[in-house]
From TrEMBL:
Superkingdom of the organism of origin: Bacteria
This protein's name: Quinone oxidoreductase
NCBIfam families for the chain: PRK10754.1
Cited PANTHER family: QUINONE OXIDOREDUCTASE PIG3-RELATED, QUINONE OXIDOREDUCTASE-RELATED
Positions of the Enoyl reductase (ER) domain: 11-322
Length: 324
């Protein structure tokens, strides 16, 4: 038996149950992993609350982790017991051990820690596709990053700045603002005290932004559209404040022939070659010093509910992990 955090019914953080589970032997194409660190993300809260529908109940929560291969199933040739690995998955990571498809694993370089690996596979790969694939950031671009002091936000600010962009970030407190400034933001906007649209216009001298990366959702719409220059792109990739309400597509025309997209990581790493491209680019950026991974909060696996409470209350900054 091993330990896991399962959800038997959708609801608040209190439905996260720490309990014994049975882990099967790895089947063909699978490996068994002893996990060391687990990433905590807003998407975990979406599945727990029912905003995103899980395939079945009960389910083991969580979507990214790192660990060590302890057993390989039939036909697995690329991985061996003792290999350090990390992954992004659709559920199942809040556990001390699990089985997982070998073709969706990546090996961790020696210079990447388990703690870093546990938060790079979802958050880091998300930043990779957002800045390199969804809208390719270039030095002449001005970008707006909402929730700039969060796990994705801090990585996005660092990487966008390293790519030469002019970076504006929105944050909820002075402490978070200082953190964002230390991680690549050229300007921070305190959305609880200021109108972020007016501040973007002021900062940009009414030239506005080429792209808005919006993981907040409900409370930043439609303001995000007003921050974009004509033919700019609104990248809505999350719902931290709730889903964006339905809107008329003519709104994009009204704000200057805008582009809008609602991307997800799965569609950018569907092929193993894409997964490896993203992971290699990401790990190289960390090893080369372009990115540092701010892990500011760690909880025991059994305290996953507390981690969700703090995440949803905006009490966390940077990445949040569960230690096994």
């Amino acid at each position: 038996m091993t330990k896991a955090v399962r959800v038997h019914e959708i609801g608040g953080p209190e439905v996260l149950t720490y309990e014994d589970v049975q882990v099967p032997a790895p089947a063909a194409g699978e490996v068994r992993i002893r996990q060391h660190a687990i990433g905590v993300n807003f998407i975990d809260t979406y599945f727990r609350s029912g905003l995103y529908k899980a395939p079945q109940l009960p389910f083991i929560a969580g979507n990214e982790a790192s660990g060590e291969v302890i057993e390989v199933g039939p036909g697995v040739t690329g991985f061996h017991p003792g290999d350090r690995v990390a992954y992004y998955s659709a559920l199942g990571s809040y556990a001390t051990e699990r089985v997982f498809a070998a073709d969706r694993l990546v090996k961790l370089p020696d210079r990447i820690t388990h703690e870093q690996g546990a938060v790079l596979m979802l958050k880091g790969l998300t930043v990779w596709y957002l800045l390199h694939k969804t809208f390719k950031v270039e030095p002449h671009h001005r970008v707006l990053i909402h929730a700039a002091a969060g796990g994705i936000g801090l990585l996005a600010c660092q990487w966008a700045k390293a790519m030469g962009a002019h970076v504006i970030g929105t944050v909820g407190s002075k402490e978070k603002g200082e953190l964002a400034l230390a991680n690549g933001c050229d300007h921070v906007i305190y959305y609880n005290e200021e109108n972020f649209v007016d501040r973007v216009k002021q900062i940009s001298r009414n030239e506005l932004c080429d792209v808005v990366y919006d993981g907040v959702g409900k409370t930043t719409y439609p303001g995000s559209l007003s921050c974009l220059k004509p033919r700019g792109m609104w990248v809505s990739f999350g719902n931290a404040s709730g889903p964006v309400p339905p809107f008329a597509i003519a709104e994009l025309n009204n704000h200057g022939s805008l582009f809008a997209t609602r991307p997800k990581l799965n569609d950018y790493v569907a092929k193993r070659s894409e997964l490896l491209e993203g992971a290699d680019t990401l790990f190289s950026a960390v090893i080369d010093g372009k990115l540092h991974v701010p892990i500011n909060h760690a909880y025991a696996l059994k305290d996953a509910a507390k981690a969700h409470v703090d995440l949803e209350a905006r009490k966390t900054t940077g990445a949040v992990i569960l230690k096994v």
